[in-house]
Amino acid sequence: MIRPAAILLLLLAPLVSRGQDVSPDAGLASLQSAFEFGQYAKVLAKAQARIDEGHLSDPELIQLHKLAGLSAFNLQQDKDAERHFTALLRLSPDFGLDPFVVPPPAMKYFEDLKARLDPELEAIRQGRRLEEQRRKDAQAREQAAHAEEERRRAEALVRRVTVRTVEKRSFWVNFVPFGAGQFQQGRDAPAVAFAVSEGVLAATSVISYFAYGALFEQRALPDAPGAVETGIPVNRQIEARNWRLLKIGSAIGFYVVWAGGVADALYHHQDQVVTTSFAPAGAPASSGALPQTPPSSTLSVLPTPDVWLDSHGGGASLTLRF
What we know:
Elements: H1 4-20, H2 24-36, H3 40-53, H4 58-74, H5 78-91, H6 104-116, H7 118-159, E1 161-168, H8 180-184, H9 188-213, E2 217-220, E3 228-231, H10 237-267, E4 272-279, E5 288-290
Parallel strand pairs: 1-5
Antiparallel strand pairs: 1-4, 2-3
Helix pairs in contact: 2-3, 2-4, 3-4, 4-5, 9-10
């Protein structure tokens, strides 16, 4: 069972800890107030204790050594006064006491000590000047390196060449079958679709043409000795009809797909296409539009795909050269 005294200690612990958590500024103000009221022994003891604790900044140490040194001087403790003033001057070699606040005897003691320590203080000043110069030199080198990097970036931007490529496209290629217009436009998927479809239909038309022609046979006429006639036997009429319909249908299909490819190519046609890119100076390119020779194309058309509806059937014939 928890006793009331333990409960009371638990409740008072946060208050005690908050009371002990005093900021450095508040502690220095308290010491300064005590010094002004002449409590030199108290100020000396607390200042020394606070210095021994450590974790102080240079301004705090300087203030504590000043209060401790003046308190020790007023208590006629010259060794402690000299020790604290020496530590103060080593932290700040050019430190000076305020003659409107500090009495003349203390001022004289401090200035005499400062004169005796002048060689040591000058060495400290020289070391700090060298450190400051090194810091400035390092900062200057960093700034120079940054400026050089910026200069190189600016030069790279100036030297970068804008390359504009102009591709001229032939209008008449759009009328060529087998997806030629789509290939010229760089649209590979529809180009392959048109090429495959038209190729299959054209091949079917050609095969049907020759298959239909192979059905014709010659026979002698019984009423006219030496005379022959050419025709399709009666028993193969159905086969001949099927081949003929396939030939005609594939030829018509070829024209339909070809017309669709031409319409698609004309819809997406552009006389010229401009692409812009960037290249470093010295690359084999020059700014502005680059002239290009239009792609040469030659279209030689022998009898265009057609259907002859005579007794010998029909066929297709097409020759293309690019």
